[in-house]
Amino acid sequence: MTKINAVITGVGAYLPDYILTNEELSTMVDTNDEWIMTRIGIKERRILKGDGLGSSELGSKAVAELLKKTNTSPEEIDLVICATVTPDMPFPATANIISDKVGINNAFSFDINAGCSGFLFSLTTGAKYIESGMCKKVIVVGAEKMSSIVDYTDRQTCPIFGDGSAAVLLEPTTENVGVIDEILHTQGSGRKHLYQKAGGSCRPASHETVDNREHFIYQEGSHVFKHAVSNMADVSVEMMEKHNITSEELAWLVPHQANNRIIEATAKRMGLAKEKVMINIEKYGNTTSATIPLCLWEWEKQLKKGDDIILSGFGAGFTWGAILIKWGYDTK
Ligand code: UT7
Known about the structure:
Blueprint: E1 5-14, E2 18-21, H1 22-28, H2 33-39, E3 44-47, H3 55-69, E4 79-83, H4 94-102, E5 108-112, H5 118-131, E6 138-144, E7 164-173, E8 178-186, E9 194-196, H6 207-211, E10 217-219, H7 221-242, E11 252-255, H8 260-270, H9 281-284, H10 291-299, E12 308-315, E13 319-326
Parallel strand pairs: 4-5, 4-6, 11-12
Antiparallel strand pairs: 1-7, 2-3, 6-7, 8-13, 9-10, 12-13
Helix pairs in contact: 3-4, 7-8
The chain binds oxa(dethia)-CoA.
């Protein structure tokens, strides 16, 4: 029987207009451009403004662009997976709301929460539905309104995150392109170093949780940093070795954009030249599940059919992993 691969056949994205610069942040907390640029590598990030607008606002615009670019009608979509840690609400799934907003009515849909590895876990899941023959067209969208859970009085976390969304279309192919392999990990004991303390069933919202600012991101930065550096580098190198791909042969690394120093350490361990590493953290910050597809979207025109690309990330959970893809098309 011929093997069916799941291949990315298009990328769409949406970034809100409002630009929150380091200069503006410096008026909100005791920080400065020099510290943020040296320690993290972020100059500015996008923020979704407007009452009542959540991640589905961002995700539906990214999916709408994807449908238009790929000339796909909403009725053709079989499955929508939304990777997010900032759903519009605890239930129903943001994927359902995105589907409704863009007129996807023949699909089933669900969310995946895997922290900053959300896109990796979701891409893998979507690919399995294609490879099994169960679905023909799957949308995987990373959508995050991180500004809804960022504490803008906490200088340790508020410079890091931004809002944004990006989506890919997955389709079947019998060619030797598409999602080739994935190595994914979860270590639940890491959860206490990066999480949102309240708002779930364990600690529902109360006056006390609000007063204690427990509905925002809590992060022990340097602890997370150490784990991110070693795990992202290890898993990316493991993927190269597993497939006998040298640093010369690998076309691109698409790293999660959490900190420029984590990206540089990963690329160094892989022996990759800087030109092969997609980095846009300076413009958008850490958009959690959206960072990796946002890079694919920005670099799409430079990608060539057959390019070996490693997607790699680390995030809350702890979760981390790497996916090897062979790019499926040339953009005219
Ligand atoms: O995407 C999900 C996974 N998350 C990550 O991968 C994030 C991993 N962690 C990091 O990227 C880094 O740990 C941070 C960017 C969060 C922090 O950088 P760091 O180099 O680890 O700084 P630090 O927390 O060790 O703090 C160093 C100093 C401290 O001052 P003292 O104690 O040395 O006097 C902080 O108070 O920098 C101070 N500091 C700041 N100074 C100016 C912390 N935040 C700021 C700030 N502006 N915004």
